[in-house]
Amino acid sequence: MDNIDPAEKRSTGLIRQLGLFDSTMMMVGIVIGSGIFTTTGIMAQSLPSAGLILLAWAVGGLLTLAGALTYAELGAAMPQAGGQYVYLREAYGTLYGFLFGWILFLVTMCGSIAALGVAFAEYFGYFFPSLSTEKFIFSIAISENYTYSLSAGQVVALVVIIVLSAFNYIGVIFGKIIQNIVTVIKIGTLLVFAAVGFAIGNGTPIDFSLAPGVSALSFGRLFIGFGVALIAITWAFDGWNNISYAAGEIKNPKRNLPFALVFGTVLITVLYILVNYVYLAALPISEMAGVVRIAEKATTTLYGSAAAGLISAAVLVSVFGALNGAIFVGPRVYYAMAVDRLFVHPRYKTPAFAILIQAVWSCILTVTGTFEQLFTYVVFITVLFYILTVSSVYTLRKKFPDPPRPYKTWGYPVVPAVFIIAYSGILLNTLLEKPVESLAGLGFTIIGIPVYYLWRKNSGKS
């Protein structure tokens, strides 16, 4: 682990401009997107219990915290641009790091950006119906079985992706200011929503019995339902690790990166539990089950139909912040894969070329709509990389026992083990529930192996 300290070993050309507040807002802003506004109604289908729903959100937060505590050690020891890519490279070799970056660019990050762009357009269309995803600009029959259509909403998604990419291209300062403002707004909105919800309620106490209104629901059914709900919650917390990608631009990363990871996770968990309590106070379980726009329905119940626009605005702001955060952090991984200093803009000190190629590929996924299919293929691989990264804390302690570790994982070795065991269960469930998609995800990853060796050959590395 010779390059554990990049300041001396490998000058990136990036400038440390993100303070503790910036890093925390970046982390929180990336995680809180649309999930908190949509997930609970879906959970209620398989888990018809208010008490177990709240417990599931708490357990999801604790599992995320276990991962954050582990990443905090890795990030403090290796505060480089690229984060997870660097940890995998140092623990297992360059091939593993490359495959992570390969999938991140090909699907995970660019697919997330495309999905967030379209989600933004969908809620934007609430206020401007002529620019919604349901208003088509043109359609072309490609074959008897397929017709390509471009909607006004997709154009809106393209515009917001390009604009935010441009702001992040010309300087870290623009990206972090946007993120700070939007994240403060979304945190404030969730706190106000929770506070007013607690004050108003719907006059009916929450029924905390195991399965109200459901007869003869066995322990086994509840256990399975809890597991299904936990998977949904895991993805509502997804993105908590992304701040590690920008470690090369965080001031005093040996302190600030661990703090941002841990404090950000705790803050998100508290917000999620508060908001879900309000949902449960507003609606009985029977009226929540299967409702995708659960925040909108709960808001209408509490405040009347006139308030539906407010929650749509809140989701719009929330998705905008998550989109900006994803655009900001993603290129730091691609840049870390390319040691050529030309990847840093000489004037703006940003990974300029990486931001450009990310924007182009994200736009292609947006207009083709293929990100939805691609996402289903990489869920398995994404969870696998989570497990490998957390496991690397054991590998690196044994492989490199001497380098300084400013922060060591609290509860080691138990805390990382809890994360690994829990996520292994999610991995197994994903494989059993979606075997074709899981194998397809492995296929996407395997394709990266010959690409890696071709890259090694062309770069002159042995």
List keywords for this structure.
2 strands; 462 residues; mainly alpha; single chain; Amino acid/polyamine transporter I; 17 helices; disordered N terminus; 2% strand
Which helices and strands, and how do they pair?
Layout (H helix, E strand, L loop, with lengths): L5 H4 L10 H12 L3 H12 L3 H28 L6 H9 L1 H34 L8 E6 L5 E5 H18 L2 H29 L18 H18 L16 H30 L2 H4 L5 H10 L4 H30 L14 H17 L2 H29 L14 H20 L1 H24 L4
Antiparallel strand pairs: 1-2
Helix pairs in contact: 2-8, 2-10, 2-13, 3-9, 4-9, 4-10, 4-15, 4-16, 5-6, 5-15, 6-7, 6-13, 6-14, 6-15, 6-17, 7-8, 7-13, 7-14, 8-10, 8-13, 10-12, 13-14, 15-16, 15-17, 16-17
What does this structure look like?
The chain is mainly alpha-helical and 462 residues long. It has a single domain, classed as Amino acid/polyamine transporter I (Up-down Bundle), CATH 1.20.1740. The protein is 71% helix and 2% strand. It is built from 17 helices and two strands. The protein has helices at residues 6-9, 20-31, 35-46, 50-77, 84-92, 94-127, 152-169, 172-200, 219-236, 253-282, 285-288, 294-303, 308-337, 352-368, 371-399, 414-433, 435-458, and strands spanning 136-141, 147-151. The chain has a two-stranded antiparallel ribbon. Helix 4 packs across helix 15 (371-399), helix 6 crosses helix 7 (152-169) and helix 7 (152-169) packs across helix 13 (308-337). The longest helix is centred in the N-terminal third of the chain and has 34 residues, at 94-127.
